[in-house]
Design brief:
- The structure is a single chain.
- The protein has two domains: 172 residues, Growth Hormone, Chain: A; 179 residues, Growth Hormone, Chain: A.
- Helix content is 76%, strand content 0%.
- The chain has 15 helices and no strands.
- Helix 6 crosses helix 12 and helix 10 runs parallel beside helix 12.
- The longest helix is centred in the middle third of the chain and has 31 residues.
- The two termini are 18 Å apart.
Length: 381
């Protein structure tokens, strides 16, 4: 796990996500230009929609092209999109084009980097490898926004776009130093046949179900806290990030030492309880406690569940498995952003959190109901 190529993948991923997460500040810029909330949602959502459409296609193509090459092209495209957005003045259709290009770049880079991770780390340490890969992304959530806000105090949003473009270009340059890996060559299993593998399908459905909670929290918690007078939501997100990072670095191998399902089921159960607990939160202290619980639980669950899905795929199908892992998660987040608002308007946000938690609880049980293709996560002899 200390191989030069693996560490370069982590560094490139860190740089790439610094660029991606800088655009968490785009809604504020659009609002200052006079855009409505609906228009802001359309611009921001363009990237997610393109990503959701393209991800499975990238996974399919990786048996023909190298993952390293796809990482380089994805990062270079992101750099170009950032530079292009720096030139957009006022409300324009070019905003949608730029976000669409970012969505394509994200799918190309993220799927390819994930495919390299599961190739470069041994199967006996797959969950740990994915956990640290996720940590390289997670830490940029705070760093990118903090650096971006600091930059905006002294410059313009165009300056922020150019800085993000520089990070993306650095990610492309870093990716060039990763040792080349040959494309799989062998044609992957047809998607319909792959989805008929019970454990594979169950893992994807579990990921989508639990992503409902993730999408709900990250899209609606700040509005909920404001409406309920709970104060700032930064305690929740700070606690979430810290707990998730600690768990990923200290307990990443837990799902590699035993049947992954014995880690997935209880940790997803705790994550669902944390989401349900938001329905009873009355203060910032409650939010911080729930953020800690949710961060620790998902820090264990998501890498283990993603590794579980990859375990069920043959070698030629692993790039597609990584793509479908992330696609299922993206679909769950998109469903959450589209449905929780109307749900909260009809039954109240507090009850809505409980409903989302109940839906996410499906993810606790599905992997336990199927027989894995391999003894996933059990120690290798």
């Amino acid at each position: 796990m200390r191989s030069r190529s693996y560490l370069l993948v982590l560094l490139a991923t860190f740089l790439f996500f610094l660029a991606v997460n800088a655009f968490a500040l785009l809604p504020g810029h659009l609002a200052r230009m006079g855009a409505t909330s609906t228009s802001v949602g359309h611009v921001m959502g363009t990237m997610q929609v393109v990503t959701a459409v393209v991800m499975p296609l990238v996974g399919l193509l990786l048996h023909r092209v190298s993952a390293r090459g796809s990482m380089v092209r994805g990062a270079a495209l992101l750099a170009a999109a950032c530079v292009g957005l720096s030139m957009v003045e006022g409300w324009s259709w070019l905003l949608f084009l730029g976000r669409a290009a970012q969505g394509l770049a994200f799918a190309m880079f993220f799927v390819s980097a994930g495919a390299l991770v599961v190739t470069l780390v041994p199967a006996s340490r797959r969950a740990e490898g994915i956990a640290r890969f996720g940590a390289a992304m997670l830490v940029t959530n705070a760093l990118a926004t903090l650096a971006g806000e600091w930059l905006l105090r002294w410059g313009t949003f165009s300056d922020l776009c150019l800085a993000a473009g520089g990070c993306a270009a650095a990610a492309a340059a870093t990716s060039l130093f990763i040792a080349p890996t040959a494309a799989a060559g062998e044609a992957p299993t047809p998607l319909a046949a792959l989805m008929r593998v019970p454990a594979f399908a169950a893992g994807l459905v579990a990921l989508a179900a639990t992503a409902l909670g993730f999408g709900t929290v990250f899209s609606f918690l700040s509005a909920f806290a404001a409406q309920e007078g709970l104060g700032a939501v930064s305690p929740f997100f700070a606690a979430y990030t810290a707990a998730s990072l600690v768990v990923r670095f200290t307990s990443g191998r837990l799902a590699d030492r035993r049947d992954r399902r014995l880690v997935i089921a209880p940790s997803l159960g705790v994550a669902s309880l944390a989401i349900a607990g938001l329905g009873a939160a009355r203060s910032g202290v409650h939010l911080a406690a729930l953020g800690t619980l949710y961060g620790a639980a998902t820090g264990l669950a998501f890498p283990a569940l993603m590794a579980f899905v990859v375990d069920q795929a043959e070698e030629a199908d692993r790039a597609r498995a990584v793509a479908l892992d992330n696609w299922a998660f993206t679909i769950g987040v998109l469903v959450a952003t589209a449905t929780f608002g109307p749900l909260a308007d009809s039954i109240g946000a507090r009850t809505g959190f409980v409903v989302v938690a109940a839906a996410g609880a499906i993810g606790c049980t599905l992997p336990l109901l199927v027989r894995p293709r391999v003894a996933a996560g059990l120690p290798q002899s």
